[in-house]
Amino acid sequence: MTKGLPRPTVAFVAASWGALLAGAAVYMAGLWNSMMQLNEKGYYFTILMYGLFAAVSLQKSVRDRMEGIAVTGLYFGLCWLSIAIVIALLVTGLWNSGLAQSERGFYAMSFLLALFGAVAVQKNTRDLSMLRAEVAPSADVN
């Protein structure tokens, strides 16, 4: 199953972690320094956490299906629905906010960077885990 699986390069692993950490840290720094009410900050924080989970869950489900691991249609659909919901929540929140256009773009781009980073880190983690399992067959792949 993992024959020919290319090892992620150190540069790609570092870039993936960099994207995840930069996106999440910049998003969080923006929230920390904003003049929003605490409940509004909580809303945007929850969207980030939900988005990161949904992105990783979707990536894992897609990868599982590619590798012939059973994933129910219901769960797969919920993963896609979660991504759509979290993006709709972010867009709705930013659209209705009193933020300047540049601030809206700042939150949207840092959010998307964090989601991309989470997917890439999950992919690299899984690839490296599978490569380690080839060397030590008793290792846990998931």
Task: Output the keywords.
142 residues, mainly alpha
Protein architecture, described:
It is a single chain. The protein contains four helices and no strands. It is 78% helix and 0% strand. The chain has one domain (10-130). Helix 1 packs antiparallel against helix 2 (38-66) and helix 2 packs parallel to helix 4 (101-135). This is Inner membrane protein YiaA.
Distance from first to last alpha carbon:
14 Å
Instruction: Please state the structural category.
Output: mainly alpha
How would you sum up the global shape? globular
Number of strands: 0
**Number of separate helices:** 4
Largest sheet: none
Could you tell me the radius of gyration in angstroms?
Answer: 17 Å
Helical residue percent band: over 70%
Mean pLDDT: 91
Q: What's the order of the H and E elements?
A: HHHH
Set down the secondary structure blueprint:
Elements (H helix, E strand, L loop, with lengths): L9 H24 L4 H29 L6 H23 L5 H35 L7
Helix pairs in contact: 1-2, 1-4, 2-3, 2-4
Sum this structure up briefly:
The protein has 142 residues and is mainly alpha-helical. It contains 4 helices and no strands.
